Amino acid sequence: MDDPHDRPRQRTPRDPRPRDPQQGPPDYPVFRARPRFLDRLDPGPAVRSGEPGPAPDGPRRGLPGLPGRRRRGGRRLSPGRIAWRLLLAAVAWVALSVVLFVVSATIHGGGVDDGANAVLGGGGVPPFGATNVLVLGSDKRSADTKEPGGSTSGPSRADSIVLMRFGGGKAARLSIPRDTVVDIPGAGRQKINAAYAIGGAGKMAETIESFLGIEVNHVIEVSFENFPELIDAMGGVVYRGGCVVSRINGGFRNGGYTLRLRAGKTTIDGKQALALARTRKNDCNPKESDLTRASRQQKITQAMRSRVLSPTGFVRLPWIAWKAPSALVTDMSGPTLMGFAAATVAGGSPPTRILKPTGAETLPDGGAGLVVNDEAKRRAVERFLGG
């Protein structure tokens, strides 16, 4: 008796002829592939009616060696769609930076003395209207300095004095040498940097308004403690200049900082930038004056702007936005400071202008100072206000 399992299996041959669609539905089940997401949104007239759609006119794109198989991942993005998505990402990145800047300014804002608030005011709304801002840096020593004659207590004098005018299509900077002799309201004739020691930012703003006739709308005091962190958040800045060897607060041996920069193009970090801005005596060129120092300070400001506008600065923009307000003490609110920062970046790089002295004067205490005659002041003020 034959075992049925030993018998060869018989297969029913398929009809090689193509099926006529008019013969009705096939005898075997037909499974339809689940449509993709975009096909669900617009499946086409044939699919909507429940009927099989027409065959495509040409061969379907697929993986190499597998005709008719679609490439996993959907349709390719066109260059225009890629550019649009990159633009949206860039806008979101900038928006995040703006939010971080305003929040940081709200947290770290304030700190300007009441005398300054009484003097300041007016001006346009940056970046739409021109605004005059007085930027100050003090000569305060570090607590552990061993510099001979260096004091960490008592009032400090203004180490750098810069007037900035930005917004409303204006862009101007004017550095005032710290040894310029002026009449300080209520304190007599002294060097202008003494005004800060006498009455803080308010007295300095009042003195400049009396000396130059320029209304000071806002004031910014640079925090030497946090300024290096801002430069480091930028990834450093690119400085171009001559050789500099200087000792700040007595140099390393006395608890200060020793700066050594070669001539040419150099990327400097936060501590180097701060030391460069404060350098008065340069061993590479002992003939340098306070005017050279003021010029270096404006170069650092321009280098910071260039870094913010560079690809590196764009990548680091949220970190820069968060650190910037903590490096400043100002009377401006977060939105106002943000507007002024935007006006500064958009205003370009105005030429370096310094209130150059026209003579010298010996003070009652025996010290020597610089004087500026009325004609030189008038020309400097006209150029500054003209932007």
UniProtKB/TrEMBL annotation:
Location of the Cell envelope-related transcriptional attenuator domain: 157-308
Basic and acidic residues: bias regions: 1-20
Keyword rRNA-binding among record annotations: no
Entry keyword Transmembrane: yes
Gene3D superfamilies reported in the protein's UniProt record: LCP protein
Transmembrane stretches, start-end: 82-103
Keywords tagged on the record: Membrane, Transmembrane, Transmembrane helix
The organism's place on the tree of life at top rank: Bacteria
Ranges for region Disordered: 1-75, 139-158
UniProt similarity note: Belongs to the LytR/CpsA/Psr (LCP) family.
Name listed for the protein in its UniProt record: Cell envelope-related transcriptional attenuator domain-containing protein
Protein species of origin: Paraconexibacter algicola
